[in-house]
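User: For my dataset I need records formatted as: sequence, then structure tokens, nothing else. Please produce one.
Assistant:
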Amino acid sequence: LNAGTVDFTVSITPIEGADHFQVTRVSDFQDIVIAGNHYTFLQGRTMTLKELSTYPLVCMEKGTTTRKFWDSIFKDHGCELRPNIEVNSNDLVAPTVLHNLGIGFVPYKFARSYLMNYGLIQLDIPVPRRGICIVQNPQHPLSPAAKALLDMLMNHSSDTISTYSENEGSTLAF
């Protein structure tokens, strides 16, 4: 964005280093904590992060937006996130949890189809919603094609933008 080689990006919050960019939130989503059928005894309980840390955890690898988000939540509550399994894509967390390899952190959208097989774990803290944002450099004008695509994304964000969250951790550049 700084060099003007891309017109805009679609990024997931939290977004670091975007102070001088125009950031427009177009959609949001909720992360949840899920567990496979091996952990059914935890259903219906509200857990602290400290309690949760005593079980095997599955999450995104270090450096991803999701991992930074959960690291921050754990740190803010006096805990350290130490996953047993780290994956490089959100769509790998749910199948790993389904095979009872640990308790995982995923956007609700990724768990929808699995919720029949999972237990949903309630935390004793609110988990902030995260956003899907369009990030632009106001110093660089948009190309006509980028303007058209941006208009499509902004006007149909509930249908279009949400599909981009599936590969969170990477930023899409247009």
